[in-house]
Amino acid sequence: MTGPLQIVLGTISVLFLIVASVMAYRAVRAMIRIIRIGQPDGTRTGPVKDRLKTMLIESLGHTRMLKWSTIGAAHWFVFIGFYGLFLTLVEAFGEVWNPAFHLPLIGEFFLWNLFADIIGTGTILGILYLIYRRQKDHPRRQGRSSRFAGSNEGRGYFVEAVVLTVGVCILLIRALKVSSDLTDAPAWSHPISGLLANALPDSPDLLTVVAFVKIVVSLVWLVVISRILNMGVAWHRFSAFFNIYFKRNADGAPALGPLLPMTSGGKPIDFEDPGEDDVFGRGKIEDFTWKGMLDFTTCTECGRCQSQCPAWNTGKPLSPKMVIMDLRDHLYAKAPYLLGEKTAAETAPDYDVLRPSDEQAWTSGYARIEGTNDAQAHRPLVGTLEEGGVIDPDVLWSCTNCGACVEQCPVDIEHIDHIDDMRRYQVLIESSFPSEAGVMMKNLENRGNPWGMGGNVREDWIKELDFEVTVADGPLDYDIEYLFWVGCAGAIDDRAKKVTKAVAELLHTAGVEFAVLGNGETCSGDPARRMGNEFLFQMLAQENVATLDGVFEGRVPGMRKIVATCPHCFNSLSKEYPQIEGHYEVVHHTQLLGQLVEEGRLVPVTPVDRKVTYHDPCFLGRHNKVYTPPREILDSVQGLSTQEMHRCKDRGFCCGAGGARMWMEEKIGKRINMERTEEALELDPDVISTACPFCITMLSDALTAKKQNGEAGEHVEVLDVSQILLRSLAPVGAPGTESGADVGTKADDPAGTGSAATQHDPATEGQA
């Protein structure tokens, strides 16, 4: 069935294939060369079996894409269609020469035909839904709240058009084979194309033309992406597999919890004796690791990270998506200079001529300099518009490290690691950071806490209890099961001290033997590390490890137990201290209290007639996956009614205090804590509960402002889960327990319980 039409179109197809293949080969080779510019990272290769398993589960199972179920399902069909129906492209090269051509062996096999029919239809329906969603969520309708704000819309349209055209061609070719009686496959194996065949003519030549269109569209797509290496919306189809395979955690966990140690040349930096050529943080694009560059290349511009980012959602210039896009575009624009193909002029150009575009008027996250030129070679990685910076300082310092971006990214990009690595360079090398953060770091260095309070205040809360608390002085006795890590906030901040006392009383009631470090405790170092001051973190952490190893002297693993009320301390002690050989069994107080309730050692007996909504602390929830224990504690309290905010658990909204933002003034946009508190107040709760001292401070401050404006009831409180549990353990009728509505509202009720053990008045003050 080969005629002149088939010969002409077949010849063009083969020639086009050769050109496109050569261009694709050169593009892949160039991309690999560019990625290999990055610093080495030897932690990403094994164990191979676990990494392959993770890659297959995440890609074939679409486990991360399906966090958004309908979009994830639509994308799954497009994904399976792209790879699973690749053989239809191979078949098209035969069909353009001979319309009756079939793939050898499987061409008439009923399973292949059924698969191609169903997946081909699914691809069309899937991409139509994704096109609909892109238009429905388009920035022209939603403005800044659109997850596509800042994405390259034209590239997205191109990819969508290609997928839709190829999917339609697949069904048309199959339907034309049926209408032209060119297939012997059973009719039931091509139900959709068989139905479509009723509307098509008997025309083998038309089949050849459609096959040619399919080939041309597919090869045009290949040529276009070969010319545009930073077209992540297309290249992620290939790079995503590698990015998932090389993700930080081989077991599939996202890059949350600990920050990675500072490395240079692929090795951790020895801060006591750093090498002369050690690179501190990321000050230039070439300072990132090859995995970072693979991250940049893989970004699909889907905007899931942006839609969840608390900074972006409250008017800040930070979009995690645009940070990655800007780093990617700068990398590929600067690549010729990095590869030695071009040489930059010795002097930097005048960036003063730059002016923000209309988009840049409301966010500094967009690329300011386009193309490959000397400006790309000289521009600073972090800098203002006038400095030509790739990333604006306001972008860099807006991050709360909440982890929402990393949690939502379907291709496992490690946004926080890259942002904090850039912070490290700014702090350690450039000494450039918000001024109020400088005060915090001085306080940490000189006083061991962010507030700058004297160390002797850390034991003041103990004096307010009516039972003795053991303060560690040397190795702990073996009858002491837990060391209670109080933390800076828990020992110094008045609101957090109430939680400290509540937890201490609960442990005492349950018969748990515990001790504290008292004045021997210093900051865990989390604020310093998240700020970018790795040197200060190392100093504080090593001091703490020496102290902890001293009190746990003689104890084997399994007996070095710590309970912490602050999720930031909990994360540092459990996930980051092992990096400096500090190995302990660390639990959050909600985990331990939940266990004690389950064991019957704490029995809630007094009903608490209050409506509660629980706020997930980011460093407890997303970073460490502790979602259930706090909720189980609340569920165990009689009379308590709970209701979830619509953004909860792995989609919980930040309070605004993480990433050392607790000590940086929020000068741009709406305050994050106000946004979160308003969300909680929409449920009309009596109590906004949480399990983090930072969250308590941020939510309490916002609630106070709401009360002053008459937008919240005076009875509404912010309480830790432990305070509610302690309230439920007080005997019915005890002082302060008659009415659940006034829990925590009395000035002499520091733990928010009204129980005899924590109530303080002048008559009993001196008896403790």
UniProtKB/TrEMBL annotation:
Residues 732-768 are annotated as: Disordered. SUPFAM superfamilies: alpha-helical ferredoxin (SSF46548), Respiratory nitrate reductase 1 gamma chain (SSF103501). The chain crosses the membrane at residues 6-28, 68-90, 110-132, 157-176, 206-229. Residues 290-320, 387-419 form the 4Fe-4S ferredoxin-type domain. Gene3D superfamilies: Alpha-helical ferredoxin, Transmembrane di-heme cytochromes, Chain C. Signal peptide: none annotated. Keywords: 4Fe-4S, Iron, Iron-sulfur, Membrane, Metal-binding, Oxidoreductase, Transmembrane, Transmembrane helix. This is Heterodisulfide reductase-related iron-sulfur binding cluster.
